[in-house]
Structure formats: structure tokens, C-alpha cells
Amino acid sequence: MLMFNFIELLLLVLPAWVANAVPVVLGGGPKLDGGKNAWDKRRWLGDSKTINGLVNGIAFGSVVGAIVAAGFGSLYLPGLTVSEKVAFAVMMSTGAMLGDLLGSFVKRRRGMKPGHPSRVLDKLLFLFVALGLGWLVYPDLWHALGWEGIAVLTIATYALHVVFNWLAHALKMKKVPW
Ligand code: CTP
Ligand code: MG
Q: What is the pTM of this model?
């Protein structure tokens, strides 16, 4: 049973979206896998996954969540305390980045180079890992979202990902438009 309206759904997922987008602009520094190969002689994660991207993604997603919690509290997880809302945003941001890493890990195991497109691994896995971690601090999440909420978030995330990556490519921030 969906308990959120569309604006509430967008605010709920915003920290994860921010976390996922920020590394394109604020990535860099040492590679998370240290440039090392896994047992299959392929990179653990690849050159696209950096420390700065991970840290900035989590930090910016969490800060945006805290701002929304303080400024739009009635539309962001109504019923939760401000600190519960911030905890949720931190979990959503962290989950988004972990999901992104997991996607790269799976892509490397399948022999796909960084930038190789994968609908689910690039565009949606981060959302589901984010929701999974968010659920840890907000046990009512699945119930409150319902299948309708999950479907709306999935479609909105996919569409936004397509638009943003096309933009980032057009602005020469990304090598490939996905
Ligand atoms: N990025 C980063 N650190 C991260 C995640 C992303 O620095 N932890 C930056 C990198 O500059 C990367 C860009 O964000 O090139 C886009 O990330 P993504 O689309 O996930 O990289 P891909 O090149 O598609 O690599 P992969 O196949 O591993 O997803
Ligand atoms: Mg990618």
C-alpha cells in the first residue's frame, strides 16, 4: 500500500540520486581497488571507482537529506524524527554507493569494461541497495512504499539516469552517454 505522494517519493529517494550523480563531478584520487586484479585476472572494480567519488557521494547525499529533513520535514518521511530522517538519508546515500560498487564488481566479473552499458547494473541496482539499507533504519519502508511506490521509484530512477548521463556526456563530463 503506497503511503507517499509523488513529491514525498522524490524526496525519499533524493539522497540516493545525489550520491549516485556526485562522483561524476567530484570523483578522482586513488582507485578503490588499488588498481588490483581479482582471482579472474580482471580488476576488482576498475578505474571508474575512486575514493573521492565514494566519499563525496555519501557526504553530499547525506547533506542533501539533512537539508530536506530540516527544511521540508512534513514532506520527507512524515512521522519520523529529524535524526531518524538524517539516518535514513545516510543509509540511502551509502547504499547507493555500495550498490554502484557492487554493479561494477559484477560487470568486471562478467568481463565488461568500465563504461560498458548494463541496464540493471548501472541504472537500477544502486536504487535497490539504497532502499535495502534505508529499510534497516526505517523498518516500515516496504510496507509504506508498496509495489506502486517501488514501481514509481524504479521508473523515475531509470528515466533520470538516462537524462543525466546523456547530459553529462554532452557536457563532456562522461566518456559514454550512459
Ligand atoms: N566515479 C568515481 N568514484 C565512484 C563512482 C564513480 O570517481 N565511486 C566517477 C568516475 O569518474 C566514473 C564516473 O563517476 O567514470 C561515472 O561512474 P560510472 O558510470 O559508475 O562508471 P563507469 O565508467 O560506467 O564504470 P563501471 O562500468 O564500473 O560502472
Ligand atoms: Mg556505469
A: 0.94
